[in-house]
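ingest -> validate -> predict -> emit
validate: passed (alphabet ok, no gaps, 282 aa)
predict: started
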Amino acid sequence: MTKNLLLAIFWIVAMQVHAQENFTIRINEQEIDVALDSTYPVEIEGKTFYITVMQKDTLVYETDYFSFKYLKDNNVSEIEVEEGINQAMLMNAEGSGFFVQTYTMFNPKFMEEMMLHELTKESLSYGYQMEKEHYTRQLISGEEINILRATLTYRGEENIYEVTTIGEKDEGILIVSVIMNNQWDMKGKKAVSLMWNTLSYRDDRHRNPEVNGFDSAFYKNLSSTELPDDILIVVDGVPTKDGLNIDPARIESISILKDESATEIYGERGKNGVILIELKKE
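emit:
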């Protein structure tokens, strides 16, 4: 795109944009707020070009723990449920949608039944009948998860709840989807299906690549640091004092345990932290 065309876009947009100017075009050091789905005619060397600012039909919601796609007509709301628990939720007016809760202080692994009970107890007391089943699904990030599915029926209505968790150590996520009377709520069903089909979990290796998986720069810095004598170093499951003198070419991965996750495995010896080194298999 030529410099003249860029400048023409800038000035045409500046003259014609009006309400809902939620986006910005920057050209060199100048910025202008613009509206979505607005078309601006631009004359360049006797030819007319039409410039439109558009949003993709499908957007990506992303955190350090997970990501999923959703339709641009929907909104994802975020709240802090309490300390260590955050929630991203997408629900429509009919009550269909989903939410994903992130836990950073404990593993929500055993919360499926409790969450399902809280979500369905009013419907059950009203007279709905419930059937439960489990099925497996593979996420696009590779994890195979077990999903608890409950179907509630009452006088021709059918509401579907699905609950699952993914966790490790003292953290994880809980996913809940709801389709209310799925015979007619196609928008809600589409939103839920898109979430499940695009959900990706990011485990600890993705959030902390410098300590999970082998990073040579991290190992070099670790090796050159004077570590306290009471930090436990474990190589291939064996405690050792010489773990940081290993040839880096032999190392497959390095990880670090601390706090309760260290003492649960290594007892009193791990109270000040544990460095785990795994060697490549020869």
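Residues 3-19 have pLDDT under 50 and may be disordered.
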